[in-house]
Structure formats: structure tokens, C-alpha cells
Structure to design on (506 residues):
């Protein structure tokens, strides 16, 4: 006899149960994986909320983080190198023999532990731009083992074996490292991939990017051009090749004479000038040339469109030239029509913004639009092409404009800032994005908040700093009259030589 039931018991849907359990497991695994990746990357220095910067104190070098905390105590005689400010790899030079030039190197992490100890030498790969500002390949290091050089990444992974006699950056070019092996030169990228095999006598860059190709010297002493894939662009048969190119044309030397040639070697122009200075963007416009110390414009047919009577000519945009005459700069077109009078001590064109920045005798700037109208004037404080705004000091006020010359509030352009300078009754204070006073109006001057969150404050001729919440970190105590830029990280202040990018305590 069967046992009775008062109600029907619900049946389990095993497929749904299994799906729910599986989803929970997958979710837990996902969380664990993400946590593991973040932990691993944090340990390797990949993910961090902090930057690392060079510190200088009591004539010794160390490292601090962007909160102003000491990471490596200033105890080294030579400046420490930080190849990538986001990663805790610090390169130290020690035991320097100044008579022989010999020295030792080591790499430290943020725990002050020595890393990459299997190498005889570890160095950042330094480079410099046209203004001689030094920078480093961010994610690779040059290492030496058994007398040979190779590269590793900042996690210690070998990217090329130590097999080269020499390894250097190509000046001004990122991601192009010149290597030498068996007396021949080649190029590798920062991942260790061979770009040009080691088969050349010499290699240099053609343009501002490694994709523009390379000028190479072959056996026999002649020069040519190859591209990023080592394919011939211009046959190696010239005595020299200038870094002047455009419209599939190149400036080469045959003997001591400059010649304009096409990529197939056809001569376009070989007389009428002392020197070719630039190839204009439009092929029909020809070249900027120099004759008897003056600049002019000539078509590739040899027709002179602008006589050589200018002290300097530089193409701004197609059909327009920045021209110097009687020591002052202005703008002309290819018909010699004056667009902007020659009255400025310097003049530059910013392509992304499509504006001209002209400097006057009083150090103020005129901001000129594409119709050659002066749209704003003042001391240029900042020009952010990526964020599409410029900052001007106009009188005692700081004003912000987009590239349509519409005035913007500081909160609209410095969107990541928590504090903004404000002036009242002749004194400066700091407010938040809603205008609420965070730091009272009591200072003679304040800086804009920097990318680390700090603001410089000035009182009675002395400087100090506050953090991103407006708390005083350093009471005004530093006399910084001789410093080019006021910038703090906690109690540390940017050094006098701003190109070296270090912070010190005075």
C-alpha cells in the first residue's frame, strides 16, 4: 500500500542546478584570476597608483614615490635612473673610477632588493630629442653578459640574447635600437625583433619615426635608403643622403653637391641653389632653398617663385610659410603676400589646433587663428593639443580657451583636478569643482594642482605645499626665487634643472 501525500513535492531541475553551480564556480574563478593578475602585475610594477621619481637630498640620490614617501634612501653619489615611472625598477651606478671611466651598475626594486643579478651590467637605453632633452626606452634595459650586450624587459624577460658588441638607441627615434655584430650594423625593436639584419657599415634614421625608413651605408662607402622591412627605397649609390624628403623625393649628395632625386634615382633638380633646406608638402610647390645665406622657394623645374631674400623660411601648412626678415617673424604665402606682419621674435604653427603662437618683445603671446586674426593675447601657460585647450595669463587672471577660442572654466579643462586656484581681495585660495572654499584666501600666490595632486602655496616670499584635500604638507618655508618652475611632491620640490626631472628637499 502506497503512502499518501498531502501535496506534490517539487522536483529538482538538475540541469538548472548544474548551470547555477557552474556559473558560481566560473564567477569565483574569474574573481580569483583577476585578483591573481592584479597581484602579479602589482608585484612586477605594472599596475600601481603611484609614480616613482628621482630624489636628491644632501648631495645624494635616491627615489621617492608620488606621495612623497622615500622608496630608496638618498645615499648614492650618482643619479639613479628610472626607465619607467610606473614600474619599480631603479638603476644605480656605483664604484665610479673617474680616471678610467669604469663603474659598476645594479638594479633595485621598491623593497631595495637587488634584481637581475645574473648580468655584469644593467643600464637604461637613453635617447634625446632635437632639443637635447634626454628620455629612456620605457620597457627595456640594456644588459651585458660575458662581454656582449642584449636587452631584457622590466620583468627580466630576455628579449635578445647577449650577442652584440654594441647596442644603442638611434637618436630621436623610439623603438629602434642599433646593434653591432662582427663589425656590421643592424636594427632591432624593443621586443627584440630584427628590423634590419647586421649587414651595414652604418645606419641612421631618415625621419622622426622608425617607420620612415633608414639611411644605410654599405660596403664601398655609398649610401642608400631602406624601409622598415629592409626593402630598398633608394639605391645605395650616393656619397651622402640628407634627412630631407617628401613627395617620394630625397636630397642626396654627389660629391659635395646636393641633388634632388626621385625614389627611382631620376634627378629633379641639381642647380640654382647653394643648399636645399626642405621639400614642400605639395609636390608642385618645390623646395625651400638657400643661396648666398638667404632663403627662397624654387619649383623642381628650376623656376624661382620666391627669391632668396629671407633670413629664414619654414613651411607651416600647405602654401604658407613662416618667414623671418629683419630679425622678426611673420607669415607669407607662396605669392609672397604678407599674411602676418614680421613683428614677432618667434612664431610656431600647431597643426592639431590649427593655430599660430607668436611671441612678442614683452614675452607675451598673440594667438593667431587660421584666418590670421589675433584671437587672444597673454602669456601662454599651457597648450594641450590632445585635450584641445590652451591656458593664458591675462593680466592677473588665468584664462582657458578651446581651439575655437571659446572661454572655458578651469573645471572644464582640468577635469581630474580636485583643487582650483581662486583669488579674492588680492589673496589666493583653493576651491573645489563646485566653488566651495577648501583653502582660505590667505596666500600671495598658488600654483595649479599638478598630476600628483599637490599645489604650491606662497606666503611672505616663501613656498610650501598642500595635498589634494587641501591639507598643508609643507608650511611655506622655501625660497624658490631662482627656480624656473614651482612644483611639489609632498615636501619635495622640483629641482632647478627641470630637464633632469628630479625632486629635492632644500
Amino acid at each position: 500500500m502506497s503512502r499518501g501525500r498531502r501535496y506534490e513535492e517539487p522536483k529538482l531541475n538538475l540541469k538548472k542546478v548544474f548551470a547555477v553551480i557552474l556559473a558560481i564556480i566560473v564567477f569565483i574563478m574569474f574573481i580569483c584570476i583577476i585578483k591573481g593578475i592584479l597581484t602579479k602585475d602589482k608585484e612586477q610594477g605594472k599596475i600601481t597608483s603611484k609614480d616613482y621619481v628621482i630624489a636628491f637630498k644632501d648631495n645624494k640620490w635616491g627615489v621617492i614615490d608620488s606621495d612623497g614617501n622615500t622608496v630608496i634612501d638618498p645615499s648614492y653619489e650618482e643619479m639613479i635612473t628610472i626607465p619607467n615611472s610606473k614600474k619599480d625598477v631603479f638603476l644605480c651606478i656605483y664604484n665610479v673610477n673617474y680616471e678610467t671611466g669604469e663603474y659598476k651598475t645594479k638594479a633595485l626594486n621598491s623593497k631595495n632588493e637587488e634584481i637581475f643579478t645574473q648580468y655584469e651590467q644593467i643600464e637604461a637605453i637613453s635617447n634625446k630629442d632635437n632639443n637635447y632633452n634626454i628620455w629612456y626606452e620605457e620597457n627595456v634595459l640594456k644588459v651585458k653578459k660575458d662581454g656582449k650586450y642584449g636587452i631584457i624587459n622590466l620583468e627580466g624577460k630576455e628579449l635578445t640574447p647577449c650577442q652584440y658588441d654594441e647596442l644603442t638607441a638611434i637618436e630621436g627615434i623610439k623603438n629602434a635600437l642599433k646593434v653591432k655584430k662582427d663589425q656590421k650594423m643592424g636594427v632591432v625593436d624593443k621586443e627584440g625583433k630584427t628590423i634590419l639584419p647586421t649587414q651595414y657599415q652604418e645606419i641612421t634614421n631618415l625621419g622622426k619615426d622608425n617607420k620612415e625608413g633608414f639611411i644605410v651605408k654599405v660596403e664601398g662607402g655609398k649610401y642608400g635608403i631602406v624601409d622598415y622591412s629592409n626593402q630598398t627605397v633608394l639605391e645605395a649609390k650616393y656619397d651622402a643622403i640628407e634627412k630631407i624628403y617628401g613627395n617620394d623625393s630625397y636630397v642626396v649628395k654627389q660629391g659635395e653637391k646636393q641633388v634632388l632625386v626621385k625614389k627611382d634615382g631620376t634627378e629633379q633638380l641639381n642647380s640654382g641653389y647653394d643648399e636645399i633646406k626642405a621639400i614642400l608638402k605639395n609636390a608642385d610647390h618645390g623646395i625651400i632653398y638657400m643661396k648666398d645665406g638667404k632663403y627662397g622657394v624654387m619649383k623642381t623645374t628650376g623656376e624661382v617663385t620666391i627669391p632668396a631674400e629671407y633670413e629664414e623660411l619654414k613651411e607651416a601648412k600647405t602654401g604658407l610659410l613662416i618667414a623671418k626678415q629683419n630679425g622678426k617673424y611673420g607669415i607669407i604665402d607662396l605669392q609672397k603676400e604678407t599674411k602676418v606682419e614680421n613683428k614677432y621674435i618667434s612664431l610656431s604653427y600647431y597643426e592639431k589646433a590649427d593655430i599660430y603662437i607668436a611671441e612678442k618683445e614683452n614675452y607675451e603671446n598673440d594667438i593667431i587663428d587660421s584666418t590670421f586674426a589675433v584671437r587672444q593675447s597673454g602669456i601662454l601657460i599651457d597648450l594641450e593639443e590632445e585635450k584641445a585647450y590652451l591656458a593664458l595669463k591675462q593680466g592677473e587672471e588665468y584664462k582657458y580657451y578651446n581651439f575655437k577660442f571659446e572661454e572655458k572654466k578651469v573645471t572644464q579643462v582640468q577635469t581630474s583636478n580636485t583643487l582650483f586656484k581662486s583669488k579674492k581681495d588680492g589673496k589666493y585660495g583653493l576651491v573645489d569643482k563646485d566653488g566651495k572654499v577648501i583653502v582660505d584666501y590667505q596666500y600671495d600666490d598658488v600654483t595649479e594642482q599638478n598630476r600628483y595632486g599637490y599645489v604650491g602655496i606662497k606666503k611672505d616670499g616663501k613656498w610650501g605645499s598642500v595635498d589634494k584635500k587641501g591639507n598643508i604638507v609643507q608650511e611655506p618655508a622655501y625660497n624658490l626665487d631662482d627656480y624656473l618652475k614651482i612644483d611639489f611632491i609632498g615636501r619635495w620640490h622640483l629641482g632647478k634643472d627641470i630637464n633632469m626631472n628630479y625632486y629635492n628637499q632644500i
In short: Residues 1-48 have pLDDT under 50 and may be disordered. The radius of gyration is 30 Å.
